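1st attempt posting a full record on here, be nice pls
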Amino acid sequence: MALSQTVAPAVEPLTLADAKTFLRLEHAVEDAFITSLITTSRLHVEAALDLALITQKWTQSVKRTDRRIIPLRLHPVQSVDAVRIIDSVGASTAIDLDDILIDRTARPERVCLPAMMVVTAFDTVDIDMTVGFGDAPTDVPDAIRHALLLLIAHWYEVREPVAMGAGGSSKVPTTVSDLLSPYRPVKL
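the predicted structure (as C-alpha cells):
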C-alpha cells in the first residue's frame, strides 16, 4: 500500500506566534528554526499516528488486492474524491462514487467497493481522498495542538545530534505521548 500526497496543507496547525509565545521568545533571530520545528512536529505526529491534522489530499494505492473492503491509512477522512481500478496492462476504470460505501465507524475508515466490480489479485486500486480535521489550525483538537507545542519546546531545547537505532534515538517526552494516546490507532 502506497500513499502519495497530492495537495499539501495550506497552513500549519500552529502559527509562529503560537510557538514563540509558548517558548516565551520575543526575538526574531530563530524564527526560521522555530517554523521548521512546527512543520517537523506536525509531520512527526501525522506519521506516528496515521493522522492528517490540516486538510490535505492524498492518493492511496493498493496493489495486488482482490478485497472489496480497503482500509484507508489516513484519518480523519473528509471525503473520498475518486476511486480507480488499474488493471495489469495499465487500463484505468473509474468507479462511480455513488456505488461505493465509506465505513466511517471503523478506524481505520474503509472503502467498500461495489459487489459487481471485478477486482483481480493483479489490479491496483487508487483512492483519491481529502483528509484532515479541517482547514484552520483551530480545527485541530486542543490536545494535539498542545502536544505539538511540547514537542517543539523539547526539540528547541535538545539540539544535540542523536544516533538513530537501538538505544541511540531521542525519546519523545512522555507528556507528548500521553496527550496523543487517544488518537493512536488500536492494533489487535
